Amino acid sequence: MKDFNFKTLLPHLAAVAFFLLVMVVYFSPIVFDNKTIMQGDVQGWKGVAKATMDFYEETGVRTHWSPNMFSGMPEFSAMCRAGGIWDALMSFFGFHHPVLHPHMGMLLAYLLGFYIFMLCIGVRNTWFAVLGALAYSLMSYNIIIIEAGHVSKGYAMAWVAPMLGGVILAFRGKIILGAIVTMIFLG
User: Fold this and answer.
1) Hey, which end of the chain has fewer CB within 10 Å, N or C?
2) Left if phi > 0, otherwise alpha if psi is -120 to 50, otherwise beta: which for 72?
3) What backbone phi and psi angles, to 5 degrees, belong to 65?
4) Parent domain of 18
């Protein structure tokens, strides 16, 4: 087995520190002025899920149909938890996190996810990988998703890049590493 060289880890730690700096600067009104983004979907989910939660309280049965929106539609968010690594990732990236606000956590997930993707596809220059992560993370649609409150869509977009990177690693012959990366981000 190769000896571990800490110097190979330094560029990645510097990239993560840079991502944290970008996150704090971008969301400085939240960090320093105690402001928040009034996300419409996050504000309105309780009204949409009320009938589902009331039905559960009355019957003890979990239903996945909400009659409150669009004359009825499938509904999963109020009654289900994914469990496992998904809950661990969500907790780390903003939900129930003691420091990170959920908006900041989503940006950090975008940055780290695309950075991992760039490494998986073979980008060896750390700063090219950082630039790719910045370009992906700060594109207007990803920021609009944060403002609109499309939390599930935002995290799905954050995790699809490293998941695909894991698949690419597996097809390039690094089957075990590729499978691990794919499983973590597919969770």
Assistant:
1) N
2) left
3) -130, 125
4) 6-35+82-186
